[in-house]
Specification:
Helices cover 84% and strands 0% of the residues. The chain has three helices and no strands.
């Protein structure tokens, strides 16, 4: 279902935020460093991995591609 695509995006976002916070701590910055980028790269990698294995259903692909296309404009608007 489409909800699985949204769940996959949420998982990637959580992992990206945690990784960005840890990277910020390692660099000595009190900020999230690259969490959104890490999340987007992770989403792309997981989607490609799922497609190669034949696990990605059409409904899940629709959810991932919808939120994948919405993700970048929202993040750019938030950064502006």
């Amino acid at each position: 279902m489409i909800i699985y695509g949204v769940g996959l995006l949420a998982l990637c976002t959580l992992v990206g935020v945690i990784a960005g916070d840890l990277l910020g701590v390692l660099l000595g910055v009190k900020s999230n460093v690259g969490g959104v980028g890490i999340a987007m790269i992770l989403l792309i990698c997981i989607r490609l991995w799922m497609e190669k294995r034949g696990v990605m259903t059409v409904e899940t692909e629709k959810g991932v591609s919808f939120w994948g296309t919405m993700y970048i404009p929202v993040v750019v608007a938030m950064a502006a």
